[in-house]
Amino acid sequence: MEQQVDNILDKVMDVPGNIGCVLANSQGLCLGVKGNASEQSAGIIVAISDLASKLDPSSTAPVISLESNDKICMIHKQGITGAIYKQKGA
């Protein structure tokens, strides 16, 4: 499984503008991290996704977009939870 996670992270990082990514299991354990991202954020990313899904329990898993001055963090849960960090304007 470790090789599959590394392959996914590499594919994400190959996309222009992506500067980091994190994958976490449903308990918030970091499965992998690449680029400008922290494995310490895995639990927070899962918690944000879980809380956002409670806003409309009848819909599918939401995509959450968090923006700062220079970055965007997009979070989505589909079995495992992933976060992609993008350079704003790229």
From TrEMBL:
Localization per Swiss-Prot or TrEMBL: Cytoplasm; Lysosome
GO molecular function, one term: guanyl-nucleotide exchange factor activity
Keyword Electron transport: no
Cellular component, GO, one term: lysosome
TM regions (residue ranges): none
Top-level lineage group: Eukaryota
First-listed, main subcellular location of the protein, grouped into a coarse class: cytoplasm
Keywords attached to this entry: Cytoplasm, Lysosome
GO biological process, one term: negative regulation of apoptotic process
Similarity-based family: Belongs to the LAMTOR5 family.
UniProt-recorded name of the protein: Late endosomal/lysosomal adaptor and MAPK and MTOR activator 5
Species per Swiss-Prot/TrEMBL record: Anopheles coluzzii (African malaria mosquito)
Classification lineage: Eukaryota, Metazoa, Ecdysozoa, Arthropoda, Hexapoda
